[in-house]
Amino acid sequence: MDAHAILDDPDFRKPGSDRGLLGIFRHYHLLTLLLKKGITTRYHGSALGWVWSYIRPAAQFLMYYIVVGILMGGRGDITLFPIYLFSGIVAVNLFSETLRNTTSAITDNKALVKKIYLPRALFPLAALGVGLIHFLPQAVLLFVVALIFGWSFGWVPLLAFIAGVLLILIFSLGLGLFFGSINVAYRDARNFVDLILMFATWASPVLYTWELVQTHAPAWLYHIYMVNPMTAAVELFHTAFWVPIAPADARPSHLLIQTLIAAAIALLTLLIGQITFRKLEGSFAQHL
């Protein structure tokens, strides 16, 4: 066939071109393979394996509960503080896991990136999926603990949980695409992400309530704080697991509006991350 005819063929695609996240599911088989690779290698050589997915959040919860709830004598003002604390920790852990995975997705797969062409967005998306799968044991553990404390099924808690998970995934993927693409050339990006994750627990209502921020912070700062995607996500997790067994007035009065604004911010972050990723992905192999 003539070369010009090939170039004019509508099915012909220039090597290395793709549609970013919009076209990634055309390569679902490759995505599945990367997911399996990430899952099987996560605890490779570990005697306990997946048990660590239960041990880590449980140990983290005990540390905060003993130090803040018992030794410091605080949080007596929060009804059922263990559920409040654990639901917030699980939400932040999902954010930490997915952001850390997506940020390092390209550098962790540098052998593949340098040798063969794959749509580059496959790597952070697969890393996001791995983080979500490893989040499930924590969610199950939280669900069991909430049941012990009297939690019962309801559509509002279920929808709040799903919305919280989606909000975290969108926000962390956007940040991961942005910092992950920069991290290929400048490893400082990974250190900046570590700083974000170091403050994540304290910048969300995990160890304290949103009312504390409302009382002590200026009004403008409080409103910014409440539309932070992670603040909204943590409050959605509280709505899903803590509010059903806590006082009815425990959730923020404008949570729905705050969640919608936080979702818009998360989507904007995803858009910026995607644009940055597509702009820099052509030079990934050279920098690696």
UniProtKB/TrEMBL annotation:
Keywords: Cell inner membrane, Cell membrane, Membrane, Transmembrane, Transmembrane helix, Transport
Topology of this chain in the membrane: Multi-pass membrane protein
Residue span(s) of domain ABC transmembrane type-2: 48-280
Signal peptide: none
Subcellular location: Cell inner membrane; Cell membrane
InterPro entries in the cross-refs: ABC2_TM (IPR013525), ABC2_TM_bact-type (IPR047817)
Transcription regulation listed as a keyword: no
Chain ranges passing through the membrane: 51-72, 78-96, 117-149, 155-180, 192-210, 222-243, 255-277
Pfam families assigned to the protein according to its UniProt record, in alphabetical order: ABC2_membrane
Record has Cell inner membrane as a keyword: yes
Family classification: Belongs to the ABC-2 integral membrane protein family.
UniProt name for this protein: Transport permease protein
